[in-house]
Write a structure and sequence with these properties.
single chain; 284 residues; alpha+beta; Arc Repressor Mutant, subunit A; Beta-Lactamase; 2 domains; three-stranded antiparallel sheet; globular
Length: 284
């Protein structure tokens, strides 16, 4: 999973997301706290840019006074939710922010239950086994057990992955209810990373239908020509996808046939984790 791709941004600071997408909440708009609203816009913007953003870039995107952006950034940095790189003068989200949201969603239980399953998946496939979840307009890596091969795929915990190309994102989005999926559609840029990347909404809808049919999702060089991935969803007791398990390995080991074989193992392990969590898959 690449971390150095070109940044693409889209500002939502001038609109009211909740009011636009949830009309029933419109009467609450008179109780909004402006500085809190701006802080949340700041957090949501920065969360979409794992590579970080400078104060100038944040100001341009948020379209609010630079002094206000600086105060928000400084406060979040002092509280440990944002990190500032002194060399590049850029800000990025910290692990503390990830841990806060993860804990609030019962993530500690998820990771505890997934540890033995991840180890088994790594041992079964020989490739790096990972678990992640959705985080707003992207996915995020929560844990991994690296492959024992000298050449392997290893990513940073907290690494953000795109929704349209990453196998774990497709595994989860294929089972979202239509309303939840519609909320994410504005965030799909369909940026082309390789010749295999899905770049249209129609193509993506077709891919999600295939995920629902076979029970797993593949990344056959859609994000990088150097590795391939296979992922499967993990469900809660309502049948909602709360995470995805996946494996990732170099293309010279994961041929198309080997990838499908590994995908079957991923699907079995994801079902095992769903059971350990007391979850249940949605009806076919």
């Amino acid at each position: 999973m690449r971390t150095g791709r070109q940044r693409k941004t889209s500002s939502s600071a001038t609109s009211s997301p909740l009011q636009k997408k949830e009309p029933s909440l419109a009467p609450l708009s008179r109780y909004r706290v402006p500085i809190l609203d701006r802080t949340l816009d700041f957090i949501e913007l920065l969360a979409r840019q794992p590579g970080g953003m400078t104060l100038t870039e944040l100001t341009e995107e948020l379209k609010i006074p630079k002094n206000t952006v600086f105060r928000i950034a400084s406060t979040l940095t002092l509280r440990g939710y944002v990190e500032r790189d002194e060399e590049s003068k850029s800000y990025r989200m910290s692990r503390k922010m990830l841990a806060l949201g993860h804990s609030g969603l019962g993530g500690d239980r998820l990771l505890q239950a997934s540890a033995v399953v991840l180890a088994s998946l790594r041992n079964t496939t020989g490739e790096t086994a990972l678990i992640g979840t959705l985080a707003g307009s992207h996915g995020v890596v929560l844990d991994q057990i690296p492959s024992l091969h000298p050449v392997k795929v290893v990513v940073e915990l907290g690494h953000a992955f795109p929704l349209h190309s990453a196998a774990p994102a497709k595994a989860m989005l294929a089972h979202l209810d239509p309303t939840a999926l519609a909320r994410l559609e504005p965030h799909f840029t369909f940026a082309r990373f390789t010749s295999h990347t899905i770049t249209t909404a129609a193509g993506y809808a077709k891919a999600l239908r295939e995920v629902r049919r076979v029970g797993y999702a593949l990344d056959e060089g859609e994000e990088s020509e150097s590795f391939r991935c296979a992922a499967a969803p993990v469900f809660d007791h309502h049948g909602h996808p709360i995470a995805a398990l996946w494996i990732s390995g170099p293309v010279d080991r994961l041929s198309p046939a080997a990838l499908v074989h590994a995908a079957e193992a991923v699907r079995e392990h994801a079902a095992r984790l769903t059971s350990r969590l007391g979850g249940t898959p949605p009806p076919s």
